[in-house]
Write a structure and sequence with these properties.
It contains five helices and nine strands, in the order E-E-H-E-H-E-E-H-E-E-E-E-H-H. By secondary structure, the protein is of the alpha+beta class. The chain has two domains: about 60 residues, Ribosomal Protein L9, domain 1 (3-Layer(aba) Sandwich), CATH 3.40.5.10; about 80 residues, Ribosomal Protein L9, domain 2, CATH 3.10.430.100. The chain is elongated.
């Protein structure tokens, strides 16, 4: 039975090809899953037009990816982090952190899955990382992790007591509001 493949089928062929397959394979596997159609002149023509349209769209997408790769290539992303003993970070810099920072730098959203990091960065230093835009388009970026300045540390510690005080005040207000009216009257006496 001759069929026109609508999608790539491992071991049988690529999308758009006309192949001779057994009747059972076509009726039980290819046709129900939407992987192929029975080859008629009308179907063959429609599939060829659809594939041509997909190739055109794919080439336009590829041009956008190449343009984005040129924007990304060679960018340097800097992180400031708190450092512990042995230049190890408190926490780590993950692919999500790098993607967020890179998105801010280039003005276009980059998915964290596209950042090629084997393990999160846990030490200061400079790391070269690839961004997987397509199978063959992989621009490189540099991730630099530096120690947080003393002034920034002081600012961070000063803010904490203020936040604690605010939370305590909110808790006190809530407990006063939640007390039944009888308890409030007893306290006033």
């Amino acid at each position: 039975m001759k069929v026109v493949l609508l999608q790539d089928v491992p071991g049988k062929g690529r999308a758009g090809e006309i192949r001779e397959v057994s009747k059972g394979y076509a009726k039980n596997f290819l046709l129900p899953r939407g992987l192929a159609l029975i080859a008629t002149p009308d179907v063959t023509k429609r599939v060829e037009l659809r594939l041509e349209k997909e190739r055109l769209e794919e080439s336009v997408d590829r041009e956008r990816l190449v343009e984005l790769a040129q924007q990304i290539e060679g960018k340097e992303i800097r992180f400031k982090a708190r450092i512990g003993a042995g230049e190890r970070l408190f926490g780590s810099i993950t692919a999500a952190d790098v993607a967020e920072q890179l998105s801010g730098v280039i003005g276009s959203i980059v998915d964290k899955k596209k950042i090629d990091i084997e393990k999160p960065f846990r030490q200061t230093g400079s790391y070269e990382t690839a961004v997987k835009l397509a199978s063959d388009i992989r621009p490189k970026i540099t991730v630099v992790i530096e120690e947080e300045d003393e002034k920034e540390k002081e600012i961070g510690t000063e803010e904490k007591p203020e936040k604690k005080r605010e939370k305590e005040e909110k808790r006190k207000r809530k407990t006063k509001e939640e007390e039944p009216p009888e308890v409030k009257e007893e306290k006033e006496d």
